[in-house]
Recover the amino acids of this structure.
């Protein structure tokens, strides 16, 4: 990231966009409806491969994915998202009818941040997404603080001019 680029902005006034990957059309429609009612912008897709393609094109801070889907399942999608270089952290919520401890462990080890069994209770889903938003807000604050520290480390506090450290970093690039 260059010195003039800003950190991805996310405020409490604008809920983050959600990518919903759900193969069942009825569940997808119902979840999209109540997520939009809760104020979220929702892009819904029918499988993991399509969700992965959308993640390549746009940053979605929240991913809600079904475990069992044709092609790339929810576990594969979580693993793939964790291996991507993205603009920020992605909070991944895994939905499934599987409720055994071994399934919860497998889901979390695949990269999911949270796990919710179907049928999904609307209030519980919104509460878990609010917890995810808090994590995303913390991550955003950390990125902003790191960017401020980076700027402070390469500029003079009094004049704002670049210092020797900046020159030592930039000079080799300029010589090339």
């Amino acid at each position: 990231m260059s010195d003039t680029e800003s950190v991805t902005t996310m405020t409490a006034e604008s809920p983050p966009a959600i990518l919903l990957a759900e193969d069942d059309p009825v569940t997808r429609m119902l979840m999209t409806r109540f997520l939009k009612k809760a104020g979220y912008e929702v892009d819904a897709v029918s499988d993991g491969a399509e969700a992965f393609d959308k993640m390549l094109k746009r940053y979605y801070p929240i991913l809600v994915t079904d475990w069992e889907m044709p092609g790339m399942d929810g576990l594969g999608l979580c693993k793939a998202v964790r291996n991507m270089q993205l603009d920020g952290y992605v909070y991944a919520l895994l939905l499934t009818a599987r409720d055994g401890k071994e399934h919860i462990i497998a889901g979390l080890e695949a990269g999911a941040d949270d796990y919710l069994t179907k049928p999904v209770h609307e209030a519980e889903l919104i509460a878990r997404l609010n917890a995810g938003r808090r994590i995303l807000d913390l991550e955003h604050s950390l990125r902003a603080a790191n960017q401020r520290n980076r700027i402070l480390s390469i500029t003079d506090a009094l004049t704002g001019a670049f210092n020797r450290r900046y020159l030592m970093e930039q000079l080799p690039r300029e010589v090339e």
Q: What stands out?
A: The beta strands are 18-21, 42-45, 62-66, 91-96, 114-117. The radius of gyration is 20 Å. Confidence is low (pLDDT under 50) at residues 1-12.
